[in-house]
Amino acid sequence: MLNRNQVAVVMSTYNGEKYIREQINSILTQEDVDIHLFIRDDGSKDSTLSIIKEFDMKYANIHLMLDGQNLGPAVSFMHLLYQINGYDYYAFADQDDIWKKRKMITGIQRIQSKDEPALYCSNQILYIDGKETGYRFESAPPTDYLSTLFANKISGCTMLFNDKLFRILVNEQKRVSDEILRLRMHDTWVMLVADLMGTIVYDNESYIDYRIHSNNTVGVKTKSTFEIIKTTLKHLNNKKALAWRRCTANEIINKLSIKDERKRKTIEKLSNVYTLHNKIELFKDKGILEKSGLSKYVYFTYILLGWL
């Protein structure tokens, strides 16, 4: 019998009692791989932890991590990832979706031939009131670092990555700071690292029912210009929240050694929007404007005010 790939699935939970049984069962029944499910509860107030403990007692391949802290989802996911080692592939799981049986093996087959750090990600089937209502994306969304820096479209729950990418993400000198994770979700950082340091394989098919409910609409709705301005005004007293793109670009420069000179110079421009030279360069760079998804007027305003 051939050795099967060992996959570490990383899940952060918080008040997920309503759907978590169905999700865990769908993860445990993945085909043609050996699953090891690592769960960190982020301070649930409902029966989520009791449900997880039931599974933990029953299955040897479920590992429950508890430290009593409420870190927020992005920090929780990454802190859990840092505690894991020794697997062929790694994946993130939300607490409320449903995985198709071949989700993991499909991702593995798409990146197993890659010699460099590699990330697989996919489309999502929107799941509302117990029914599949169609795909999230009709065509492939952008996965390049610039598009991701401005507005990541890829959900962590669709990701699977190899050991080479894992080792970059967990390297103590290259780990993303908790401060950035409080500004951006963990999946944004993983996408950035994958594109800048390796390769991304996107699958427009989906092997996940992405459950939509009142507490889970992150990443689905596209913001209008009015909503972008409204959000900006809301954060006027928080300079880092306003300038999360610049903060993230700075984090990239400080943590990653980018070999592609063009990419590195672009990130450097975005990491310092206060100098007159860089402002002029950003005004002139139509490529960044196009990738930003912002209207020309919002883009120019953000540059002028140092909010990019």
Automatic annotation (TrEMBL):
Keyword Lipoprotein among UniProt keywords: no
Where would I find the Glycosyltransferase 2-like domain in this sequence? Answer: 9-137
Q: Sorted alphabetically, which keywords does the UniProt record give?
A: Transferase
Q: Which InterPro entries match?
A: Glyco_trans_2-like, Nucleotide-diphossugar_trans
Question: Can you name one GO molecular function term for this protein?
Answer: hexosyltransferase activity
Q: Name one Pfam family in it.
A: Glycos_transf_2
Q: Protein name, please?
A: Rhamnosyltransferase
- Provenance organism: Sharpea azabuensis
